[in-house]
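Continued from yesterday's entry.
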Amino acid sequence: MANVSVYNIEGKEVGTIDLSDAVFGVEVNEHLLHMAVVSQLANKRQGTQKAKTRSEVRGGGRKPWRQKGTGHARQGSTRAPQWTGGGVVFAPTPRDYSFKLNKKEKRAALKSALTSRVEEKKFIVLDEINFGEIKTKNFQNVLNNLNVAKALVVLEDGNKNAELSARNIPSVKTARTNTINVYDILKYNTVIATKAAVETIEEVYA
């Protein structure tokens, strides 16, 4: 069972917490991590690229000249691919790039991502993040106190002031316990989570 320090928003250590091995101490499966990241990026793709084939381009209904006797190569349409203004050969059409991961695979990948952050000492637990007002400077001060530049901050539900205070910091993304994903955990250098958020994650994913 991993034991990590708990800090306050001033960056001072105020205790420790035991992390559940069922979530934060699993064997890291790199193949599943890769599949989860590729799946998430593929599912974001719009797949709306489109070009017209010769059957879709306007015009070209009439044969440009007779079949024989002109000295030209025979042509059936001015919208064939070799003509200016003609259609595209094997033109791209809208498609769906997404593919599905099973529920068990998703959970295992998420646990692997969290475990990798704990093993790399890039998982920071805060006792709480409570701001009386929405102020970006307050959140930036917390990051400075923890000596963190780029972070994924996992908050418990209802912590609106902290969410909005972090919104204007480009190197920080906030997430709730039900929206965390493998891509964000691996993308950001550090994962910061409140004690309440850690307890919720352990309840849901253990």
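--- second protein ---
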Amino acid sequence: MATGAPWWTAERVQPVVRDLVHASLARLRPGQVVPLAEPEGTGAADSLELLNLATELSRCFHVHESGLGDLLLARRGLKEWSETIVRSRAAWDHAVTFTTSGSTGDPKPCTHSMADLRCELDVLADLFADRRRIVGVQPTHHIYGFLFTFMLPATLGIPVVDLRGTGPAGLLRSTQPGDLVVAHPAYLDLATSIPVQVAEDVSVVTSTGPCKPAIWRRLRAAGVASMVEVYGASETAGIGLRRSPDEPFSLMPHWSRVAERDRSIIRFGNAGEPAEVPDFVEWLGEREFRVGSRIDGAVQVGGVNVFPGRVRMALLEHPSVADAAVRLMRLEEGGRLKAFVVPTPDTVGDGLLNDQLSSWLESRLQPVEIPRSFSFGAALPVTNAGKPADWYVRQRQGD
């Protein structure tokens, strides 16, 4: 039974499988550098890791729904897994499930029906119908990359070029007339940090986080013909679009606002529960909105609700802190809060700053709120998709 979907071919699926395998192994091996697997290999995974990988692949592509789940263990390797997934999708092609990075909590599955994804894809295909090539730096196993560098090029019948191995400086220099560059704000920030000119008629799309006006200005100065920012989340897929940092976002055609609930939206024709917009928003009408601050949820430390956002703000008040991130440690790290701090350029000695921050917070926060571990670096850690990333804290003697 054929699905009729042009993206379900082994050649197109293999990059998604590779990215999913790489991300899964990275979670299973915290603190280690995990190389991308070759088509014939699986990153030297052991038997327990192979079980985890087969489960992740089955969950994402719903291979269990077709009854072919056992083949993921019987036929191992990226090529074989891709072929099994294509065979499975020919029998069952109703949904896919993405897993959040866990950057703002525990990783969680987000299931989307193919019908819903096709609604968004129709919008994107109309918006970018004149593009001749897609140049991407997004992981394909997250929803942004899946839509733009897996489904969209197959729908438009154009090639996709993965430039993640070239580095930000080469991204814009590699463009050709008619390209659509798919990236995230942090990557575009680096790509435009040195003056560069793009080819004629190049479009850029960005998502996963707010794109600062300065990045828009530098892209325009580089000769980018048009730019689109997509607002959405793993739980909802795309929600809104805008073409300028001065404009509000407009809801995509398949969404409508639930007027009596500020953060609620619902798909047209959907009789189910409304979805929640992941941020505070200001509605300017029925279909236009501005995005406000992130909604920081509480985490439990020793049975007490603690707000990482409050701890971060206390850190930012210290004169030697340029930026900071605060999150809950993993279970194996100790279950307390941890902080990643970007010192100001004139700060000398991480060890001294570590002691200063502990004393600083002791006078401002409750003991349960004070991070047990401080890590330092030149920039906050982010994933390949440009989202806030976790960092691994190794246990120290005496902890």
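The longest strand covers residues 226-233. The chain has a mean pLDDT of 88. Will compare against the first tomorrow.
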